[in-house]
Design a protein that fits this description.
With about 250 residues, this protein is an alpha+beta fold. The protein folds into three domains: about 80 residues, Hypothetical 12.0 Kda Protein In Nam8-gar1 Intergenic Region, Chain: A (2-Layer Sandwich); about 70 residues, SBDS protein C-terminal domain, subdomain 1 (Arc Repressor Mutant, subunit A, Orthogonal Bundle), CATH 1.10.10.900; about 80 residues, Alpha-Beta Plaits, CATH 3.30.70.240. About 35% of the residues lie in helices and about 25% in strands. It has eight helices and twelve strands. Strands 9-10-8-11-12 form a five-stranded antiparallel sheet. Strands 2-1-5 form a three-stranded antiparallel sheet. A hairpin with a 4-residue loop joins β3 and β4. α4 crosses α5, α4 packs across α6 and α7 packs antiparallel against α8. The longest helix has 22 residues. The relative contact order is 0.10. Belongs to the SDO1/SBDS family. InterPro entries: Ribosome_mat_SBDS_CS, Ribosome_mat_SBDS_N_sf, Sdo1/SBDS, Sdo1/SBDS-like, SDO1/SBDS_C, SDO1/SBDS_central, Sdo1/SBDS_central_sf, SDO1/SBDS_N. This is Ribosome maturation protein SBDS. Keywords: Cytoplasm, Nucleus, Ribosome biogenesis.
Length: about 250
């Protein structure tokens, strides 16, 4: 007589997964994710949860395929909505990865942060960029520690002030052209001028229209844009001429 092997209904076997775990009310809850997608979700570079979760199911043990009990979900989360609970675990749970995977991810993130800093910054005295190797050494000297829950860009921006403690480094300046119609030009002139680190051209034409060309810190770009939209009541125009001004020439907008 033939026997049919049945998988229990509370089991779902998955392979090649990344597991995010949360312990709550004395119980373990896990979600099964695609590898390398959890960090993307937390950094908000991936917003489609179906690209992150292998299944919208809450487990008590992913590796054994054991699905969490309904009563346990209600006791711990106050609901039985699998998708909402998956999101909670995905956002707040602990990503389970091997030590080897952790080392590979940390090394990759370290290089990405160093590359971003090298691309964003220059020596403020020479206006020349630093090599990635120099930035990597500087990061090690200040004992940079990668944060898996934080994006590489955010970490790069946070590390620039720290690097200033040991080396001469600043964000590379942008070159802007701003134009303001005569009816609002005099009103915003002083505020607008103060946002430029270097004024290269300041021109008032016969009709009272203002044009300013110069260098600003990247962090001031939004302030200039907002000033022209709000204070100048949309009577101003902003043109980014060079994304990054360095001694070897400008990095133009493509």
């Amino acid at each position: 007589m033939a026997h049919r092997i049945q998988t229990p209904t509370n089991q779902k076997l998955l392979t090649n997964v990344a597991v995010v775990r949360m312990k709550k009310c004395g119980k373990r809850f896990e979600v099964a994710c695609y590898k390398n997608k959890v960090v993307n979700w937390r950094n908000k570079t991936e917003k489609n949860i179906d690209e992150v979760l292998q299944t919208q199911t809450v487990f008590s043990n992913v590796s054994k395929g054991q699905v969490a009990k309904r009563d346990d979900l209600i006791a711990a989360f106050g609901m039985e909505d699998q998708l909402e609970i998956c999101k909670m675990i995905l956002d707040k749970g602990d990503l389970q990865i091997s030590e080897k995977e952790r080392q590979v991810q940390a090394e990759s993130s370290f290089k990405e942060v160093a590359n971003m800093i090298a691309n964003m910054c220059v020596n403020p005295e020479t206006k020349r960029p630093y090599s990635i190797a120099v930035i990597e050494k500087a990061l090690k000297d200040v004992h940079f520690s990668n944060k898996a829950s934080s994006s590489s860009k955010k970490q790069a921006l946070e590390m620039i002030p720290k690097l200033r403690e040991t080396m001469k480094i600043d964000r590379a300046e942008m070159r802007l052209r701003t134009s303001v119609d005569s009816k609002e030009a005099k009103k915003v002139h002083t505020k607008l001028r103060a946002l430029f680190k270097t004024i290269e051209v300041e021109d008032w034409d016969a009709h009272g229209n203002l044009e300013l060309i110069g260098l600003i810190d990247p962090g001031s770009y939004r302030v200039v844009d907002e000033l022209l939209r709000k204070d100048a009541k949309n009577a101003g125009r902003l043109e980014l001429l060079s994304l990054k001004v360095i001694n070897d020439g400008d990095i133009e907008i493509s």
